[in-house]
């Protein structure tokens, strides 16, 4: 823990307080100057806004889709064979690596790709739409890709929770005359609440740190419309070679992640 966690974090914090680290043999202590520069950067706040939109929309969609599909697979109105087939299909996105997902969707969303062909055939759109290159469509496009890739994790977890709810609760509710909506809001949701809260907090942490998918689809462009805190920090370090500024940005991102992590730990303690 000391070698792999404490030392690297301490080094990054020290870099953030220095000027011209790594690229120069004569670094000087500048205090919080790098932090003031980062917090005063318009690109940093663009990255914060994009990260917030990307994360919140993804987590909400993951939760809704995961709950809908898990309830569908847990339904007694669906045959066992059908449930087995659809479980396999629904979980496929989760089995693919980020690199494969990025390449797959870049091909599908290409101006000459399958998505444009299908939409044109159905009369829903015309022309070669630049999904990942259009400033107004790039962020919704990468958010959709992240939703598609991430919902199976919610689905599997919520399905396990649904299968653990005692049927006696539903039978007692039916005796009392409760309909499907009342059983859902007063039995299903309360029973799933610990899982939902835990999954939502974990997904907030994971999604806010997403880098590979963004980098391999849009690279943070076009015009910074998909710039995230992760890509912003990476570009500072390895494109502009501003390792001091990148370290300050990384520390700020770490602080934001720690707030989410503390929230997750507190929810776990409350549920226990």
Describe this structure in words.
The protein has twelve helices and two strands. The chain has 272 residues and is mainly alpha-helical. The protein has a single domain, classed as MetI-like (MetI-like fold). α4 packs across α7 and α9 (180-208) runs antiparallel to α12 (243-271). It is globular. This is Carbohydrate ABC transporter permease. Residues 48-264 form the ABC transmembrane type-1 domain. It comes from Schaalia naturae.
Q: Helix tally?
A: 12
CATH topology: MetI-like fold
Which bin fits the share of residues in helices? over 70%
Order of helices and strands: HEEHHHHHHHHHHH
What fraction of residues sit in β-strands? under 5%
Provide the gyration radius in Å.
Answer: 23 Å
- Can you list the strand order of the major beta sheet? 1-2
Number of strands: 2
CATH class: Mainly Alpha
CATH superfamily caption: MetI-like
Q: How confident is the prediction overall: mean pLDDT?
A: 90
Spans of at least 5 consecutive residues whose pLDDT stays below 50 are none
- Identify the CATH architecture: Orthogonal Bundle
User: Which structural class matches the secondary elements?
Assistant: mainly alpha
Largest sheet: 2 strands, antiparallel
């Amino acid at each position: 823990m000391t070698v792999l966690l404490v030392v690297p974090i301490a080094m990054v914090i020290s870099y953030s307080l220095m000027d011209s680290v790594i690229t120069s043999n004569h670094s000087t202590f500048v205090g919080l100057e790098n932090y003031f520069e980062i917090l005063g950067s318009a690109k940093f706040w663009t990255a914060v806004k994009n990260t917030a939109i990307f994360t919140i929309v993804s987590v909400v969609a993951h939760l809704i889709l995961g709950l809908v599909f898990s309830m569908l697979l847990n339904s007694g109105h669906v045959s066992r064979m059908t449930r087995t087939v659809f479980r396999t299909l629904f979980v496929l996105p989760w089995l693919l690596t980020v690199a494969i997902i990025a390449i797959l969707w870049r091909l599908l969303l290409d101006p000459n790709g399958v998505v444009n062909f299908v939409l044109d055939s159905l009369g829903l759109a015309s022309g070669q739409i630049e999904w990942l290159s259009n400033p107004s469509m790039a962020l919704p496009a990468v958010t959709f890709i992240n939703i598609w890739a991430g919902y199976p994790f919610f689905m599997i977890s919520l399905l396990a929770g649904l299968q653990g709810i005692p049927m006696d609760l539903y039978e007692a509710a039916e005796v009392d005359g409760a309909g499907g909506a009342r059983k859902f809001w007063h039995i299903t949701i309360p029973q799933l609440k610990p899982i939902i809260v835990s999954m939502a907090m974990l997904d907030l942490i994971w999604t806010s740190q997403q880098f590979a998918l963004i980098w391999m689809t849009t690279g943070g462009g076009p015009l910074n419309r998909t710039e995230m805190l992760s890509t912003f920090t990476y570009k500072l370090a390895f494109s502009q070679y501003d390792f001091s500024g990148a370290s300050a940005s990384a520390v700020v991102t770490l602080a934001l992640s720690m707030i989410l992590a503390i929230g997750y730990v507190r929810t776990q303690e409350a549920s226990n």
